[in-house]
Specification:
28% helix, 757 residues, 6-stranded mixed β-sheet, 7-stranded mixed β-sheet
């Protein structure tokens, strides 16, 4: 929907109809007219931010067919008129001069030239047929993303399995929330936040583990402050003293990768001091006694030796949690980006289960979703082992049902594929020869970028759909100009599990097309058009509803109209009469017996531990000014000015020992590569730890350094812990010349030392 702005009228309230408007968006996403009757033809289109999983509500200002500005939506219950630095500048990507507006084909000299859609499509189809005809269906892969609408993520999974008939499809949520998803399924039987964020306002204790909330999810900080205003305690677990950690009642500054012993020690104290809920454990869980046996040895003193956290602080954290009537636990990538990411998450979930802090207002658990549609993007079939509705692809009943929905024979449904990191291993082995990518940037986001580069150079054929020419697109043979979020409609699912609506504000520029149109056209050219009879995102969503029916993530009762009427709908929503499910587990968990599982975990070291040659832990993360690979935010003037280049945070003790001053360029290296960055000397990091933000590509990409290793279950990479070294550059090294451009102070709360000497 949209709304004309008329002079002298009150502010627009989304959901109300202005009889004077004559600008209209069809449900098909097609723009009918732009001759609005308001002042200068200005209209507001209600939608949601394209960045993190909070999906804050916003109104896009549209004038003469262009997005010209933005304002926060007061009516959307999550952000209530607040937005972060990325959100308020997101609209600037739509008309950016870097936008791709025509198909590009790489010529024999390795340079891109402009091409027609017909020429680009013909080349793509011929290469797909050539590769699959020679090496088999599985020789062509699809790598998708979770910043797409749910309609598109559903479409990508179906395109891979029906149009290409390949088992190799995965998505970039593999690099984000998949450890949490795996653990939630194991413990609860379902993958979704247990509570709406409004429950934070009634809790008595918050534990935030591995989340730099103030920078990565700034609007959530308001919920934390409001909880604290009414007396809630705050515990933060992080190797860095993040902005929120500096205000916490307790900051547990553990060594990177040691969450299991820390969580086990907290549980040890809870059990020893009788701060557990026996009735909840007996009636609603299984596996507690095995967990008691395992955590018996994880005394605070023993855990302190591994984590570096004072045992008294571990005891204090347990008592703060255990003595609270209501408590909620949130975590993010800090505990998930490990080769034991699933174990980390399960260990924290055990704390919630042992104390009965689930299934009621103010009692709960969630992972803080990093991508805009990280939740919806992993629910409906683009994950390597999953079919729509959070169904497992190896479940015979699930395969049969989805095959019927899609109109194919079950025997033609491919089996489970492999994770994206494994797919790149398969490129090296010659098992995958071609790839279609959309909504990702592997030359920034995957670990060990030199290894990634080698795979892309070996890949026989690559086609990328994007709206900017990313670092990864430069390795493609064909680049197709797709749509920005404001140029299409559809749904996303927020961090809470609330399905919301993205509304189209403008058409894509030049010859660019909406992403779903490109995929449907490719399916038609592959001779599979009968399986993709879509004329709008609404058509795709209505099929998705049926495909999800009866699954764990049941969207069947959700419609575009209901989303608009309710300002979002929490799944599961099994019928059209159902209003949605804001809070899970009030009566039972999602396992067949209705009980949650305690799953104890022993501590395992990271793949690489510091040693004499590489004595530091290296960990990576975000800054408030950029998003994921930075392909969008590094092009926005204000954001680029605030954080123009990456940096390495080091402790003053290290800086003095190595004679490194604040802003001086230094070399950081691991067994895989090196980068030269300005040093940010801060007292807010452990002396044994280095931190680098990861939003930039080579030659300063943090992932030139990270280790090529994954969790054995979730296959999530170990971004948060590897062994590294930092050195002062030789004065004669040209890279040592000049001070670095450090991030702006204030918003991020970074406190640099005046001098590293």
């Amino acid at each position: 929907m949209s709304q004309t702005i008329n002079p002298g009228k009150a502010n627009f309230i989304p959901g109300q109809v202005n009889e004077e408007k004559n600008f209209h968006l069809h449900s098909e996403g097609r723009v009918e007219t732009w001759n609005a009757s308001g002042e200068n033809g200005l209209t507001l289109v209600p939608t949601h931010c394209p960045y993190c999983g909070l999906q804050c509500g916003m109104n896009l200002k549209v004038q003469n067919g262009k997005v010209t500005g933005v304002e926060p939506r007061e009516d959307f219950p999550f952000n209530q008129g607040k937005m972060c630095p990325k959100g308020v500048t997101a609209y600037q990507q739509v008309n950016h001069p870097d936008r791709l507006t025509h198909p590009l084909i790489k010529d024999a000299s390795g340079q891109f030239r402009q091409a027609s859609w017909e020429e680009a499509y013909n080349l793509i189809i011929s290469k797909i047929k050539e590769i699959q005809g020679t090496y088999g269906k599985d020789a062509f892969a699809v790598y998708s993303g979770s910043s797409l609408t749910t309609e598109k993520t559903y479409l990508m999974g179906k395109f891979a399995r029906v149009a290409l008939q390949t088992r190799h499809v995965d998505y970039n949520g593999r690099l984000c929330m998949v450890a949490a998803a795996t653990a939630s399924n194991k413990a609860f039987g379902i993958d979704r936040a247990a509570n709406p964020w409004s429950d934070i306002l009634s809790t008595d204790c918050l534990l935030l583990a591995g989340s730099n909330t103030a920078e990565c999810h700034p609007i959530m900080t308001g919920y934390v402050w409001k909880a604290r205003d009414r007396g809630a305690k705050l515990i933060v677990v992080d190797p860095r003293q993040t902005p929120l950690a500096r205000t916490a009642d307790l900051h547990l500054d553990l060594r990177p990768g040691t969450d299991v012993p820390l969580a086990n020690a907290i549980l040890h104290v809870l059990i020893k001091e009788g701060m557990i809920d026996r009735e909840f454990i007996e009636k609603r869980t299984v596996g507690f006694e095995e967990t008691v046996k395992l955590v018996e040895k994880y005394t605070p003193e023993y855990a302190s030796q591994i984590t570096g956290v004072d045992p008294r602080k571990i005891v204090a954290a347990a008592r703060m949690w255990g003595q609270s009537r209501k408590a909620m636990l949130f975590h993010a990538r800090g505990i998930e980006h490990h080769t034991k990411g699933v174990d980390n998450v399960l260990s924290y979930i055990n704390i919630c289960l042992a104390t009965g802090q689930l299934g009621a207002e103010g009692k709960g658990y969630a992972t803080i979703t990093g991508q805009g549609n990280g939740q919806g993007g992993r629910e409906h079939g683009q994950k390597a082992d999953q079919l729509p509705g959070q169904r497992k692809i190896d479940d015979p009943a699930a395969r049969q049902y989805i095959s019927q929905v899609w109109g194919i024979d079950e025997k033609d449904m491919p089996q489970a594929g492999t994770s994206v990191v494994e797919m790149f291993d398969q490129i090296y082995r010659g098992e995958i020869r071609g790839m279609l990518t959309i909504c990702n940037n592997v030359m920034v986001s995957l670990p060990d970028v030199n290894w990634v580069r080698g795979a892309l150079e070996k890949l026989g054929f690559m086609v990328s759909i994007d709206f900017f020419l990313s670092e990864s697109c430069k390795y493609a043979d064909v680049v197709l100009p797709g749509s920005a979020w404001a140029e299409d409609e559809g749904t996303t699912t927020t961090v809470e599990g609330r399905v919301v609506k993205i509304n189209q504000a403008v058409m894509p520029p030049g010859e660019a097309k909406r992403d779903w149109e490109i995929i449907v056209e490719l399916a038609n050219l592959l001779g599979k058009g009968q399986y993709f009879p879509y004329h709008s995102p609404g058509d795709i969503f209505n099929e998705l509803r049926v495909a999800s029916k009866g699954g764990k993530a049941d969207y069947y009762g959700i419609t575009y109209e209901k989303i608009e009427k309710q300002n979002g709908v929490f799944w599961p929503c099994p019928t059209e009469e159902h209003t949605g499910t804001p809070r899970l587990f009030e009566e039972k968990f999602a396992h067949p017996d209705g009980k949650a599982r305690f799953i104890p975990s022993e501590y395992r070291e990271a793949t690489e531990m510091p040693d004499k040659q590489y004595p530091f832990y290296l960990t990576t993360g975000r800054t408030v000014y950029h998003f994921l690979s930075g392909n969008q935010t590094r092009r926005i003037g204000f954001l680029k000015e605030q954080a123009p280049e990456p940096w390495v945070e080091i402790h003053p003790l290290v800086a003095r020992r190595l004679e490194i001053s604040n802003g001086e360029r230094v070399k950081v290296y691991t067994r895989r590569g090196e980068v030269v960055l300005p040093a940010l000397v801060v007292s807010t990091i452990r002396p044994d730890t280095l931190f680098i933000p990861y939003h930039w590509g080579p030659p300063v990409a943090a992932n030139l350094l990270t280790v090529h290793a994954v969790d054995p279950v979730a296959k999530i990479p170990e971004y948060k812990a590897c062994a590294a070294m930092i050195e002062k550059l030789d004065p004669n090294d040209p890279r040592a010349q000049g001070k670095g451009q450090l991030p702006a102070q204030g918003e991020s709360g970074i406190r640099p030392e005046r001098s590293g000497k």
